[in-house]
Amino acid sequence: xxxxxxxxxxxxxxxxxxxxxxxxxxxxxxxxxxxxxxxxxxxxxxxxxxxxxxxxxxxxxxxxxxxxxxxxxxxxxxxxxxxxxxxxxxxxxxxxxxxxxxxxxxxxxxxxxxxxxxxxxxxxxxxxxxxxxxxxxxxxxxxxxxxxxxxxxxxxxxxxxxxxxxxxxxxxxxxxxxxxxxxxxxxxxxxxxxxxxxxxxxxxxxxxxxxxxxxxxxxxxxxxxxxxxxxxxxxxxxxxxxxxxxxxxxxxxxxxxxxxxxxxxxxxxxxxxxxxxxxxxxxxxxxxxxxxxxxxxxxxxxxxxxxxxxxxxxxxxxxxxxxxxxxxxxxxxxxxxxxxxxxxxxxx
Length: 348
Fold this sequence. Notes:
This protein is of the alpha+beta class. It contains twelve helices and 15 strands. The protein is globular, with a radius of gyration of 26 Å. It starts with a helix and ends with a helix. The relative contact order is 0.08.
């Protein structure tokens, strides 16, 4: 073969591999770089929204800390955001424009909707959903986010207790720090901060989740003691700093009377107090449709050899629930056993 023709053939193949539209190495690298730049811009917008909610302004140093890149890259990202009309500068500080705030709020909403979906529908461990949602949130358009919300019944909270607002709305009231509660006071967990990840994992391992009622049993320099139902929980100062709470509703009895349905002893009878806000969308609606509504009597009647799932008697019907489903139902054991069993027989 003529060497010139051979080299020409090789050159054509190499050029095709490198530059073929959409599938060549160079176009794919460009797409990847563009996606990375877009994600960085989105992360800056979310950071500036967080700073604004905390009453602060974003700075060059805070942007560099979020992006984890050199000063030159920070300047490029800031310049692109200013050119797009999403960010404005005031001296050495950065702030969101109205358009930038709308984009940032969409990203936050998309993230929380994705976490809700990953926990409820994809059955992903709650400790793993944050990073996955971080990657996917940039790809979700406002229309996609609205469809996802509708498919889950428009959930109100993500698995950590953060509110999922409607598009463009702002609602980030996640309660008060648990460190403000005194010994003997009761309340309800409303938010578990998921960063740092190690602290959040430790809270999940303690069996904590938004919606649980508690009573403070003691406070000292090392931490806080809680009673959640009949279960004692000891929190370190670091763990307590990641928990936000709210007072119990006026019509809710002592938190010490409340337990999760999954912790109710076999054949004990209880009255359903509430469903945890941690469960939203189709999962929550299914439990309500099955009869697990506040005020209804419920009784564990049959467990498998491994204890999961477990069968419960409710409204005259026996229904099997997985442990994670039963843990979302907060109940109050009934003291009058004879009356309770009579109610169970009549399907009340």
